[in-house]
Amino acid sequence: MAELINMRKAYGNALIALGRANLDVVVLSADVSNSDHSAMFEEVFPDRFFNVGIAEQSLVDVAVGLAYSGKIAFANTFAFLFATRALEMVRTHLCYGEANVKLMAAYAGLSDSFDGPTHHAITDVAIMRALPRMCVVIPADGIAIDGLLPQVAAWPGPVYFRLNRNEVPVIYDAAFTPTIGKAHVVREGDDVTIISNGIMLARSLAAAEELHARGLEARVLDMHTVKPLDREAVLDAARQTGAIVTAEEHSVVGGLGSAVAEVTGEDLPVPVVRVGIADRFAETGPYALLLDRYGMAIEDVVAGAERAIAAKRRVFV
Amino acid sequence: MHYHSEALIKDLSLKAQTFRIEVLRMVNRAQTGHIGGAFSAAEIMAALYFHHLRIDPDNPTWEDRDRLLFSKGHACAMLYTCMAHRGYFPVEELATFRQIDSRLQGHPDRMKLPGVEVCAGPLGHGVAIGVGMALAQKSRMAGVKPSAMSAPSGRASIGRTYVVLGDGEINAGVVWEGAMAAAKFKLGNLVAILDYNGIQQTGASADVMPTEPIVDKWEAFGWHVQEIDGHNMAEILNALDRADEVHARPSIIVARTTKGKGVSFMEYDNRWHGMPPDRQQFEAALAELEEGVRSWLN
Fold first, then answer.
1. Mind listing the pLDDT tens digit for each residue in B216-250?
2. Most exposed of A302, B43, B261, B278 (fewest Cβ within 10 Å)?
3. What residue numbers bound the domain in which B265 lies?
4. ipTM for the complex?
5. How many A/B residue pairs have CB atoms within 8 Å?
6. What is the 3-state secondary structure (H, E, C) of chain A?
7. CATH number for the domain that contains residue B23
């Protein structure tokens, strides 16, 4: 059993470190700071923390005002609220108006599993990546959060930082630092490439183990930045392995899988199989069970990889 | 009561009236744009840009400037007119309003036109964004001490935040989210001016979405409220001065105005919310507005 890390605590600690390093960082929450763990920042820097109440549109707009005044504003609430309720604020002011606001999208995917589909965020990546100027980043573990958060602060514009609510397997050594916009090869392989991020990266590595047992070598890419997408890494995967499976904790409509397929479809057509939620809502239940039930089991990634490899053979024989 | 000279009042009132003519010409030339809500805000905007605001057109990013958030973005022909005549850009550029390659977009774009504080058009954003700006101003003043968040703001060195709102605009819920936050954070450095012209796109505000009793509403939200005639320059100037003296809570000036003010056939008529004039209407409107200018010159 892999070591687990609590993503919310990792985020809270990274936010405090950022607050120490950069006095322009201010943090806002819409009265869920003990859920999203921005309360950890509030304890250390009460003067730079603002609770705007249960008002997500105001949350984003107040952050915009702070950003237009030179602050680096970290707005915190549930992912689905940024991507749906406050979306017009995000589009008009963060993207069109170039407000330097960072959206800390808590409880993303199915990770707020027991609260059910009203609280799940399964279309947020599709929504956010469609917005001009938006950067979309999805860390896979706590080390990735530590490494990426200062880059999020330094990024010259809005960022959607998609966070998992729960404990997730540790993937990276403490010394590792991912770079925004640059995919990371976590495992080498020639038969197929699994492109993944977030919680699905751990499951993709497990799938690669299973494929190895079946005599197939899968490359595993951590595509933590969905936008701007590392096109070269996708094209390398297409060129060198000839088949791609994407694995994301999101609807298969419009997310990572779509982003990858857009690149291959235009520049280097190879089979791309998308593993994710099949354009439907999930339900209430334990997190791991929901992932398994709604198309994101390790076996789904394995089956997807095998399908992509089979399709490659059909294309290239 | 504050004293403002007759000469100042006359000068600003005259400016407001000539700005209506400029707006009429812009919308007529483009054959697209919003006249009614620009005319109702003429005196308010003239008072802000040519007397009250501490701004520097040569340095639109000056950190200690006052921020003006023109939240009723559709009426931006008046904003552009004030900015041009105040020196932010050449007056001749007003002729490019709503045309391709223009910095004068259909609704204000802060990235294209320096001096525009916020993109507006989707209604309701001004108050909540103003809260963020006022918080930032206060933190600069106070050295980020929470105890100072409620301290008197004064006019000494740090700019203040002003928001111009429309009365139809306050139908939007986020306005009231921002209103609550402004009171919570005791933002004495935030002033809203509500251009209450009583008409919105499809009819009278009282029919579309009743917002009265409007003074009681804002008071209940914890704001200091003044109610004035929004076309009376002396009342506008006095109210702005008074609002600056309010400490530890945000302030709003409910300015009772007339949509389409200055042109008899446009006043109180919701069709002039977003309709350009035809040639005959343009000539008739111009004649009435010029008559208004003459009345201030006499």
1. 999 999 999 999 999 999 999 999 999 999 999 99
2. B278
3. 6-57+64-72+123-297
4. 0.94
5. 101
6. CCCEEEHHHHHHHHHHHHHHHCCCEEEEECCCHHHHCCHHHHHHCHHHEEECCCCHHHHHHHHHHHHCCCCEEEEEEEHHHHHHHCHHHHHHHHHHCCCCEEEEEECCECCCHHHCCCCCECCHHHHHHCCCCCEEECCCCHHHHHHHHHHHHHCCCCEEEECCCCEEECCCCCCCCCECCECEEEECCCCEEEEECCHHHHHHHHHHHHHHHCCCCEEEEECCEEECCCHHHHHHHHHHHCCEEEEEEEECCCCHHHHHHHHHHHHCCCCEEEEEECCCCCCCCCHHHHHHHHHHCHHHHHHHHHHHHHHHHHHHC
7. 3.40.50.970
